[in-house]
Amino acid sequence: MTTRTLSLGALALAALTSGAAMAQTAPMDGAKPAMEKSMEKCYGVSMAGKNDCAAGPGTTCAGTSKMDYQGNAWKHVPAGTCTTIKTPKGMGSLTPIKA
Fold this sequence. Notes:
Strand 3 and strand 4 form a beta hairpin. By secondary structure, this protein is an alpha+beta fold. The protein has a domain at 34-91. The chain starts with a helix and ends in an 8-residue tail after the last strand. It has a two-stranded antiparallel ribbon with strand order 1-2. It has two helices and four strands.
């Protein structure tokens, strides 16, 4: 075999293997990305302006909470840890906390 044939073969093999690797990392239809599976929304644990989303009426989304530990603002935390987070206002909650 010539050097050119070997080079082209190696290049084709590299392209095929990288394509196969990329296909394996994409989520399947209907599957949630890994972050969504390992994280959960935890209400009442974020500091003012540090929430991930849902800070109640008059706010738009991320970074709009008005006070520390606001009950209707949530932060993503590792799954299974929300209700173990202690704040000066109580424990974290998987549902919005009414004031």
